[in-house]
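Q: I have 314 residues here and want to know how they pack in 3D. Can you give me a structure?
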Amino acid sequence: MIGVGRDAASSPPVRSATYPESEVRDWIALLKPRVMSLVVFSGLIGLLVAPGHLHPVLAFTSVLCIAVAAGACGAINMWYDRDIDAIMRRTRDRPIPAGRIEPGAALGYGITLAIGSVIVMGLAVNHVAAGILALSIAFYVFVYTVWLKRRTPQNIVIGGAAGAFPPVIGWASVTGSVDLIPMILFAIVFIWTPPHFWSLALFANEDYRRAGVPMLPVVAGGKETRRQIAIYTLLLVPLTLLPWFVGFSGLVYAVAASVLGIGFLVSVFRVATDRQDETGVSLTNDAPARAAFKFSIAYLFILFAALAIDRFVG
């Protein structure tokens, strides 16, 4: 396995944290709330644009289950990655490596939330949505976190499927089925993930290198990473127009997707043409990559919001 070992000697020391001593904010931090916000939003959009009607209470329950499941994945991920989190500058103050929450407590917390979210989704909403929710949790934990993250630079490409499930879950919550449109939304998030995350990986490259995580910039270098970011963005922009092409959305969404796509391409062009040394290291402190990363977050939020607005206006 690439990366730091999983034995007890490699695990960071824990400063005898107890439940009363652990701040509420640390338990919330285990859920990765910033990551959760985009997951919840995309799930909500899938629910809103689906044909049919779902009682508001059940709709709220569905979105809540998606949020809790996403948080559960975050907690389990932090438990498993506590050794490398202690090494990386941007993650070393997380609750587990900082010693504010015991690893075993975090794992139990995550497992409880994961099982609870699937059970509630199945009992309150429908079994199809619950099944996809369970699949998304299993994919994130076992395929991405345990199997791919420390083994291959394609971890983000394949593992990105985990973050692409929420709009499908939202759609299935209303319809009890999966068809073309939620799969298009899945594909949009799936193709969006590599340029989004590799932009982050460019300016967090030294952290990943220090921890032995084979992110693309670590394995292939900055030049190849920039090329891959450009390729995936070129695939993404026409893909986002598919809802309009198949007649699901109208002009509002088509215009929004086009304008956003041009903006994304411009930001990625700046990443690709960033001044670099002979090894592909940025000479501008990766300023274009940082800007592209921030833009990519707003891009997906606005794109999905435009789809919902277009449906309501239409």
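Q: Anything worth noting?
A: The first helix runs from residue 24 to 29. Confidence is low (pLDDT under 50) at residues 1-21.
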